[in-house]
Amino acid sequence: MNRSLYRLLVRLHPQRFREQFGEEMISIFEQSHPSESTTLIADGIVSLLRQHVVRSNLWKRAAGAAISALVICGWAYSMGQSMEASLIAEFERAMKLQWAPPAVGTQLDKTEFQRETASAVAILGRIGKKQERERRAQPSAPHAQPAMRAGETRTQG
Amino acid sequence: MKDEIRSLLPLAPATLHILLALSSEDRHGYGIMQETFRQSQGQYKLGPGTLYDNLDKLLNRGLLAESPRRAGQEDPRRRYYRLTEFGRRVLAADLERLRAVLKAAGLGAALTEGRKP
How far is the CA of B43 from the CAs of A14, B15, B19, B36, B46, in angstroms? Predict the structure, then answer.
């Protein structure tokens, strides 16, 4: 039973290692005292992991992937933080603009604005009246043809 | 060469024991395990997985080489390994480093106990 298990463990080692040392490992297992078989199986499991993970550089690829994932997560987190901060700042600015009590200067400007607006409206009103008077006083255009009534025909020459 | 040796130091305990086991004679894997057990007075026992992982590394780095198979009644699956000249230099350098460590440790112990080193 233990021997078959140990043979299986040896068979699971990478091919190059197995071909070079597999038979010797089995030979040592067979020579050892039966009481040592548990220790040797444990050693075989450790060896299997070592050959597949450490010696095959799998751990380097795994570490590289983990570091890359951490960098990407860190970058995404910092981007999220800065976006959140800028959104909060924008929101606060908008709230201040909406809810800020009018300052003294602003009140004065408002009064001035109202006065100026009223003045501009009066000026525009005067300009409009003047244009109306001029339009009425102007004779009709010399080449302007009167609108044709229904049923009339225009003769050429 | 010195830089290459220095880059391999300090040796891991398993590596040191394997090189020490092979410093006296060529051995097969099981022989290395037994010699390691004997050297460490039963304190350190190498498993086949650890042993062959280290042998693989040491063969690739040129510290060990495979010896010719021996004819006889031995298990034909057994392969023998020997220490190369480079491996012997690396072992010597690590033993020198350990001697310095032991010397410093002795000095430290003497100072702790208030003795003159």
Answer: 30, 15, 17, 9, 10
Residue of A nearest to B28 (CA): A24
Task: Write the ipTM.
Answer: 0.78
Chain A contact for B74, CB < 8 A?
no
CA gap A126, B3 in Å, rounded:
102
The label of the residue with tokens 């987190």 reads A77
Kindly give, in sequence order, each residue whose CB lies less than 8 Å from that of residue B100, ignoring residues fewer than 6 positions away.
Answer: none
Cβ of B53 and A55 within 8 Å? yes
- The residue among B44, B46, B56 with the most chain A CBs within 10 A of its CB, best to mutate, is B56
φ, ψ of residue B66 in degrees (nearest 5): -85, 135
pLDDT reported for residue B76: 80
Residue A71 CA to residue B73 CA, distance in Å, equals: 61
Question: Residue B12: is its pLDDT beyond 90?
Answer: yes
